[in-house]
Specification:
The chain is an alpha/beta fold. The protein has 16 helices and 12 strands. The longest helix is centred in the middle third of the chain and has 22 residues.
Length: about 400
């Protein structure tokens, strides 16, 4: 399993030297400053590669940009509106430019409007550090009373709207502002940044779209771009919905194993693959992560290894980002399934036998609390997660483990 680390560019509070000291082998990055729908030019790609290739003192880092996360899919493509075919042309051209630069793995997502959603970016955990959290009651308070989405109250499980009304009534104005900012534009890595009016406008357009229609648009997108990916040797891998259940009345189409199977079978190509994110998918109790790794393994091109603790039963639910070996997912079983898949690939002679993974997210601990890096992407918290995962991999790969 190839150890990688996400980097948001020169403004990231966790730099190249930090990655080297963490012992990572490759870098996951993207050109977040390029507008969605625009072409990633060879010059811009090369500039990012050069940034990754040097330490702070100008000496070679030995690291390379190995995985793109993410090459964003425009809202026009998702809705098949506006000049969406021009966006498809730009996407194909970007894939070709990335392949020319030697990058073979491209992660993307097909979530409408909001790439991922949390209600707290720095929720205080019992040990004194902080973690990201999704509180269903807080989210309902935002949806019903701040966003004021028509019909919002009826879209939540019984009793949630009443609890949200009480919560909102007790909520200080500063918390209301913080909550809205966390949900609408508080998260890193989003392809586009929206204000409240933008969100309301998009929600109005998606309100009439059934999940089946959005899935059809995803299949149409893949039918257009996968042939180019095949031609230039790119492995595309779709990230799941985060969280993996409907929000704001938006359709969700990549939340379960059945969702992935429908899309993989519709565009049956090795270039059409999966980003298995154990944290996103783990927010549903009915997602069997080790089983998904085993059953979908030959099409899993990228792994996000993190854990969440579900605080309530059912779907949707409240949850928070847990330690990597804590939470509801059996991480040891998941890593074992990934190592088994790698063994199958080596036996088959596949060139992609080593699956890139990164220690996704992390709790802010120790000097993370003063460093103030990107939410979810602390230095020490991710290093702790990587060390734990590295230990699991080493133990499971040891000859004594086979003998036992």
């Amino acid at each position: 399993m190839r150890q990688t680390w996400r980097w948001f560019g020169p403004k990231d509070g966790v730099g190249i030297d930090d990655m080297l000291q963490a012992g990572v082998e490759g870098v996951v990055s993207a050109l977040h400053y390029v507008p969605t729908g625009a072409v990633w030019s060879p010059g811009a790609i090369r500039a990012r590669q050069e940034e990754i290739g040097v330490r702070a003192d100008g000496s070679p880092s030995g690291l390379a940009w190995e995985v793109v996360e993410s090459l964003p899919v425009s809202e026009d493509i998702k809705k098949q509106s506006g000049d969406w075919r021009a966006d498809l042309d730009a996407y194909r051209e970007s894939l070709g430019n990335l392949a020319q630069a030697g990058i073979e793995t491209v992660c993307y997502n097909f979530m409408p409007v909001l790439d991922w959603t949390r209600t707290d970016l720095a929720w205080r955990a019992a040990h004194g550090g902080t973690a990201m959290r999704f509180d269903l009651i807080d989210f309902a308070a935002f949806d019903i009373h701040i966003l004021e989405r028509p019909g919002a109250a009826g879209s939540f499980p019984e009793g949630v709207a009443e609890d949200a009304a009480r919560r909102f009534g007790e909520m200080p104005e500063a918390r209301r502002t913080e909550l809205a900012e966390s949900i609408v534009f508080g998260l890193p890595g989003a392809a586009e940044r929206f204000d409240m009016k933008d969100v309301q406008a998009h929600l109005g357009e998606y309100a009439v779209m059934a999940p089946e229609t959005l899935r059809g648009h995803l299949i149409d997108f893949l039918s257009e771009v996968v042939p180019e990916a095949e031609r230039c040797g790119i492995r595309l891998c779709c990230h799941p919905d985060d969280p993996p259940f409907p929000l704001l009345g938006l359709p969700r189409v990549m939340s379960t194993e059945a969702d992935y199977r429908a899309v993989l079978e519709a565009v049956d190509s090795p270039a059409n693959g999966v980003t298995l994110c154990s944290g996103s998918l783990g927010a549903r109790a009915d997602n069997d992560l080790p089983g998904m790794m085993a059953r979908l393994g030959d099409r899993i091109h990228f792994l996000h290894l993190r854990n969440v603790s579900r605080e309530t039963e059912g779907t949707p639910c409240s949850f928070h980002e847990a330690e990597h070996l804590g939470g509801g997912t059996d991480m040891v079983a998941l890593v074992k399934a990934a190592l088994d898949e790698e063994a199958r690939r080596r036996a088959a002679g596949r060139s992609d036998a080593s699956i890139p993974f990164r220690p996704d997210h992390g709790q802010d601990i120790l000097d993370d609390l003063t460093r103030k890096a990107q939410p979810g992407y602390p230095a020490v918290g991710r290093l702790k997660g990587l060390a734990e995962l590295r230990g699991v991999i080493a133990a499971l790969s040891h000859p004594l483990a086979g003998a036992a």
